[in-house]
Amino acid sequence: MPTELSVQAVGPVLGASENPAQPKPETFTPPAQAPPQPPAMVIANPTLRFDVASGLVVIEYRDANGDVTTSIPTLRQLEAYRQWSQPLPGQAAALAPASSGQASANRKA
Predict the structure, then answer these.
(1) For 69-94, how does the pLDDT look when each residue is reduced to its tens digit (9 = 90+)?
(2) Which of 2, 7, 80, 98 is deepest in the core (most CB within 10 A)?
(3) Which residues fall within 8 angstroms of residue 82, CB to CB, at 6 or more apart?
(4) Are 74 and 58 in contact (CB under 8 A)?
(5) Other C-beta atoms within 10 Å of 73: how many?
(6) C-alpha angle with apex 30: 26 to 31, nearest 5 degrees?
(7) Cα 32 vs. chain centroid, distance in angstroms?
(8) Which DSSP category does 72 fall into?
Protein backbone atom coordinates (compact mmCIF):
# COMPACT_ATOMS: atom_id res chain seq x y z
CA MET A 1 0.00 0.00 0.00
CA PRO A 2 1.99 2.94 -1.22
CA THR A 3 1.42 6.34 0.44
CA GLU A 4 2.58 9.57 -0.91
CA LEU A 5 3.70 11.73 1.93
CA SER A 6 5.39 15.01 1.41
CA VAL A 7 6.64 17.36 4.14
CA GLN A 8 7.43 20.97 3.45
CA ALA A 9 9.66 23.18 5.59
CA VAL A 10 7.86 25.80 7.67
CA GLY A 11 9.33 28.99 9.18
CA PRO A 12 9.34 29.64 12.94
CA VAL A 13 5.96 30.10 14.60
CA LEU A 14 5.57 33.57 16.04
CA GLY A 15 3.36 34.52 18.97
CA ALA A 16 0.78 37.29 18.90
CA SER A 17 3.14 39.75 20.60
CA GLU A 18 6.08 38.93 18.30
CA ASN A 19 6.12 40.92 15.10
CA PRO A 20 9.46 40.78 13.27
CA ALA A 21 8.49 43.67 11.00
CA GLN A 22 8.39 46.22 13.87
CA PRO A 23 10.62 45.25 16.79
CA LYS A 24 9.91 47.40 19.88
CA PRO A 25 12.03 47.58 23.00
CA GLU A 26 10.23 46.42 26.10
CA THR A 27 9.54 49.06 28.67
CA PHE A 28 8.82 48.20 32.26
CA THR A 29 6.91 50.58 34.47
CA PRO A 30 6.95 49.56 38.13
CA PRO A 31 3.54 49.68 39.83
CA ALA A 32 2.86 52.61 42.11
CA GLN A 33 3.52 51.72 45.72
CA ALA A 34 1.16 52.79 48.45
CA PRO A 35 2.66 53.94 51.73
CA PRO A 36 3.05 51.04 54.17
CA GLN A 37 0.04 50.47 56.37
CA PRO A 38 0.54 50.19 60.14
CA PRO A 39 0.00 46.65 61.38
CA ALA A 40 -3.62 45.96 62.19
CA MET A 41 -4.53 45.40 65.82
CA VAL A 42 -5.13 41.71 66.37
CA ILE A 43 -8.15 41.01 68.52
CA ALA A 44 -8.88 37.55 69.88
CA ASN A 45 -12.49 36.73 69.22
CA PRO A 46 -14.27 35.66 71.38
CA THR A 47 -12.57 36.61 74.64
CA LEU A 48 -13.24 35.13 78.05
CA ARG A 49 -13.20 37.03 81.31
CA PHE A 50 -14.11 36.10 84.85
CA ASP A 51 -16.71 38.31 86.50
CA VAL A 52 -15.74 38.24 90.17
CA ALA A 53 -18.97 39.76 91.47
CA SER A 54 -21.17 37.05 89.95
CA GLY A 55 -18.61 34.23 89.86
CA LEU A 56 -19.27 33.59 86.14
CA VAL A 57 -17.10 33.33 83.06
CA VAL A 58 -18.29 35.85 80.48
CA ILE A 59 -17.83 35.27 76.73
CA GLU A 60 -17.44 38.53 74.80
CA TYR A 61 -17.49 38.95 71.02
CA ARG A 62 -15.76 42.06 69.66
CA ASP A 63 -15.87 44.00 66.38
CA ALA A 64 -12.88 45.20 64.32
CA ASN A 65 -12.42 48.22 66.62
CA GLY A 66 -12.26 46.03 69.73
CA ASP A 67 -15.64 47.08 71.09
CA VAL A 68 -17.83 44.40 72.71
CA THR A 69 -20.78 43.62 70.42
CA THR A 70 -22.24 40.57 72.19
CA SER A 71 -21.83 39.17 75.67
CA ILE A 72 -22.90 35.80 77.08
CA PRO A 73 -24.46 36.23 79.60
CA THR A 74 -25.71 39.69 78.72
CA LEU A 75 -24.98 42.70 80.93
CA ARG A 76 -28.58 42.60 82.14
CA GLN A 77 -28.22 38.95 83.12
CA LEU A 78 -24.93 39.67 84.89
CA GLU A 79 -26.62 42.40 86.92
CA ALA A 80 -29.36 39.94 87.90
CA TYR A 81 -26.74 37.39 88.99
CA ARG A 82 -24.97 40.07 91.05
CA GLN A 83 -28.20 41.24 92.66
CA TRP A 84 -29.50 37.79 93.60
CA SER A 85 -26.26 35.86 94.01
CA GLN A 86 -25.44 33.69 96.99
CA PRO A 87 -22.03 34.09 98.62
CA LEU A 88 -19.28 32.16 96.86
CA PRO A 89 -17.94 29.07 98.68
CA GLY A 90 -14.83 30.93 99.91
CA GLN A 91 -16.93 33.87 101.07
CA ALA A 92 -19.42 31.69 102.96
CA ALA A 93 -16.63 30.14 105.08
CA ALA A 94 -15.23 33.56 105.90
CA LEU A 95 -18.64 34.85 107.00
CA ALA A 96 -19.70 31.77 109.00
CA PRO A 97 -17.36 32.09 112.08
CA ALA A 98 -18.23 35.76 112.57
CA SER A 99 -21.97 35.11 112.51
CA SER A 100 -21.76 31.99 114.75
CA GLY A 101 -19.61 33.90 117.27
CA GLN A 102 -22.21 36.62 117.39
CA ALA A 103 -25.02 34.12 117.88
CA SER A 104 -23.25 32.45 120.81
CA ALA A 105 -22.54 35.85 122.34
CA ASN A 106 -26.24 36.73 122.07
CA ARG A 107 -27.24 33.46 123.77
CA LYS A 108 -24.96 34.17 126.76
CA ALA A 109 -26.42 37.60 127.32
Answers:
(1) 999 999 899 888 888 876 656 665 55
(2) 80
(3) 53, 54
(4) no
(5) 16
(6) 130
(7) 31
(8) E
